[in-house]
Amino acid sequence: MSTRNAKPPIRNTWMIALLVSIGVNGLLFGLLLSKQAKPDAPTIEAPNVANSTRVLSTEPRRFIRALPPERRKQVLTAAYNNVDLRDGDRPRQLFRKLRRTQKQTRKLIKADDFDLKAIEKSLGETRELKHKLAISGDAMIIEVLNQLSAQERKDAIQTMRTRHELRRQRHQRRRRQ
After folding, report:
1. Does any domain span residue 63?
2. Which domain holds residue 92?
């Protein structure tokens, strides 16, 4: 038997590996391009619930601002007197305490000797006061809404939305300039 008829082993394995690699990369690149060229599936958007809650903010004065001036003072005074606060702290007292605590935190941060525990305590107090303010704001909004008729609430929300849209448009015009 002669060894001349047998095929010699392929010595160009690197060349074959290179061709296979180019083929696989081409396939992956083609898949990537097909995904990019394919239009996105249409998305169905639900009504924007976040927008409606953002319009009715937790700041009572923003909601009240949409009322007629004569009704505004009457509602705010009655709401402030009737609001049921759990801790007994009024919003103005809480704001004063918050400003004092934030000032103390700034002093601690600027101080030469770094007292981590004091800063953590001050930040904790700030967080607690902000939480109390949020609760009192919610209580105030509820009390204000209790005093308004259904039509007054609708009108106030519509006015707030209109003002919000006008502010948004004004902001967009400024950004374009």
Report:
1. yes
2. 57-176
Residue 15 lies in a domain: no
Whether 18 maps to a domain, the answer reads no
Picking from 60, 75, 77, 57, the residue whose alpha carbon sits closest to that of residue 147 is: 75
pLDDT tens, residue by residue, 1-30:
555 666 655 567 777 888 888 998 888 888
For residue 74, the tally of other CB atoms under 10 A from its CB is 13
DSSP 8-state symbol, 2? -
Distance CA 157, CA 2 (A): 98
d(CA 25, CA 164): 51
Q: pLDDT tens digits, residue range 65-124?
A: 777 888 888 887 888 777 766 666 777 888 899 999 999 999 998 988 888 899 999 999
> Does any domain span residue 82?
yes
d(CA 107, CA 96): 17
Q: Residue 94: helix, strand or coil by DSSP?
A: helix
Amino acid letter, 118: A
- Count of domains observed in the chain: 1
